[in-house]
Design goal:
- The chain is of the alpha+beta class and 402 residues long.
- The chain contains nine helices and 20 strands.
- It has a four-stranded mixed sheet with strand order 1-2-5-4, covered by helices on one side.
- Strand 4 and strand 5 form a beta hairpin.
- Helix 1 runs parallel beside helix 2, helix 5 runs parallel beside helix 6 and helix 7 packs parallel to helix 9.
Length: 402
Amino acid sequence: MSNNSPPPIRFTTQKAFASRITLATLTGRPIHISQIRPSSPTSPGLASHEISLLRLLEAVTNGSTIEISYTGTILVYRPGLITGSAPCSGASGGVIRHEIAAACTRGVSYFLIPLCLLAPFSKAPINVLFTGPGVITSATPAGDVSADTVRTAILPLYARFGVSNNIELRILRRSNPGSRGKGGAGEIQLVFGHQVRLPKTLHLLNSGRIKRIRGVAYCTGVPASNNARMIEAARGILNPMTVDTYIFSDVSAAPYLISKDKTTSNVKSKTGIGFGISLVAESSTGCLYSADVVSPPSGGVPPEDLGQQCAHQLLESVAAGGAVSLVGAPTVLALMAMGSEDVGRVQIGKDVISTEQIIGLGRDMKAFGMNGWGFREATDVENDVVVSVVGRGVGNVGRKIT
């Protein structure tokens, strides 16, 4: 390591771990995180999903170094160049296989959202296959959105920054949280083949009016009637709001896991059983608002309650205002900060911008050397603010300027 390398930016606790690791990789700044669950008596230090995320970033970068203390409570991460699925990255046939352990309690969106943020700034296209007993494609009790929401409510946001070609998220095998919320044995493939030098400057100041609602009701290993009951309950609330409402139904068999216990070798058991629903509302100006609900691993919740709960969550997301929902705001603000040295503007609801997640993101961006945000009251909507972000102008350092 060169002596001229900048000192690491210091953080404490595991809070916003994925966001900070992603910002470090985008900006090329090393970070030092301490006090990671130091008081936990059973599992101090980094959790299974956090270590898996570090392995994923190590696979799509070249030159990254990761140092973890003996107890796992201290991490030093020095990012390398984002290479994607280049031949030097160890990709087999252009595809990186990332296996998630069975102890993982986070949904696959925990890995997909940071990976999508890195993909436009990669040297080569990114093609990652998520597999293993720990892949959960549905929403989770930990607050992760489903893979359907990533596909329908987050990936379309990249088109506003000029990133829209050869982007696909394939749900190869669905799964819900397994026993005690761990594992699911699903399978997801992300193909992100559009790399840019700098994202376009965004000016999004008109949220428009809701014109249609789309969604997916899914179930794995349970009767298909659960989907019909969720759809009927959700439509009972949403149909009076807009007539253009269509919710798809996806029924799949539960994944099987082969037991590794010596006493019960080669015994297959079902996992990832459950059902859920994902809804997305689109406005006349292309703004997206989403909601996700999944059955708890312990069961006991009827499908009608899930359908109604998801519909109410969607209406609350729309009522929060702004041209960007809480689910998409971190992605939009990060891409605006990584753009050219110009002022971008986006209208966001006060209930969204005042959340702990967004305030923490702004502070972390400032710590990584990005410009602060400017605020002013929106003129046309009472509870909205216009956020002004000046791009950093660094962009994709691995892509040649032509």
